[in-house]
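Quick start: read one record
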Amino acid sequence: MVLAVGERGRAEECRIGLQPGDLFSFAYGCPGGFCSKSMLQVFSLCEAVRSGGDLRNLGGTERTAVEFCCPDGVVWFRLRGERES
């Protein structure tokens, strides 16, 4: 989930137009409309969750949840891992 964008929270502050509240679902690859630069960070976080790791070891607030900023320092994300049923 996109938590915040830039200083004013406007889509034009992000190169690809992400806005607060945008949601993405990650299975393995990069979902459509998601930033490929940010995917570099998300991929390793998703792999940690998939392998049973604890995101608190990587600065997360919960075992399967972490907030992080994009490489450009503009967009803040919250990643929450969930088991598929």
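The chain has a mean pLDDT of 90.
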